[in-house]
Amino acid sequence: MSGIFFTGPPSEILLAWSQQKFTLALTDSIMDEYRRVARRLARAYPGVEAGPVLDLVIRQSEFVIPVALAEPVCADPTDDKFFACALAVEGAMIISGDRHLLTRKGAHGISVMTPRVFLDGYLVQ
Q1: CA-based Rg of the chain, rounded to a whole angstrom?
Q2: Under a CB-based contact definition with an 8 Å cutoff, are residues 9 and 119 in contact?
Q3: pLDDT tens digits, residue range 62-103?
Q4: Residue spans per domain, the chain
Q5: In Å, how far from its chain's centre is CA 24?
Q6: Which end of the chain has fewer CB atoms surrounding its CB within 10 Å, N or C?
């Protein structure tokens, strides 16, 4: 969501995704969170229209059925949905600035990295 409202690595990653340089995997619960965050940020930044980008995300992403986790992974259990999604996709990684996710990098074999690390390590050629 930060790629819609702010410049920098998140917006560069959003652009790379729109150019089909990688696939975005989602679950219904992740999409629900994206909508909630977009509504909250839209109140703070009324000049930004997230709706068209969210519509594109819905149309162009791979929706998956999340893997059931035997036990919580993150200190914030609401972040477990990202691991459940990543486990449903072979070779998936989680790109986030969320500290709860970043502290769990490597859990269940899933790479978790900041937008800057992903941009520099995977998208810049």
Answers
A1: 14
A2: yes
A3: 999 999 999 999 999 999 999 999 999 988 899 999 999 999
A4: 2-123
A5: 8
A6: C
